[in-house]
Amino acid sequence: MPQVKCSVANCEYWAQGNLCSADEIMVEIDSHASANKMKEEFAGEYGQNTGHQDHASKSSETCCQTFKPKTSEKK
Question: Which residues does the UniProt record annotate as the domain DUF1540 (predicted)?
Fold first, then answer.
């Protein structure tokens, strides 16, 4: 798997060096990000043979659906 850079430090999968440590990464186009089916945390459950393909003309039209808010660390 290639290294995926991510600067969203409050994500459960954010790792030192601005790296994503998720086992799978789901990237969706922004027009689907606001759809009801995308109101969940996916973190790898989504994107397995969903059968749809989309096209974006620039990176600003995409978003990461793998994001999961980091849980509080217990002390």
Answer: 4-67
Tell me: the pLDDT tens digits for 17-73?
999 999 999 888 887 666 544 444 444 444 444 566 778 887 788 888 888 998 875
CB of 35 within 8 A of CB of 25? no
Model pTM score: 0.63
Closest CA to 63 of 6, 1, 16, 2: 6
Angle at 74 between CA 4 and CA 66, to 5 degrees: 25
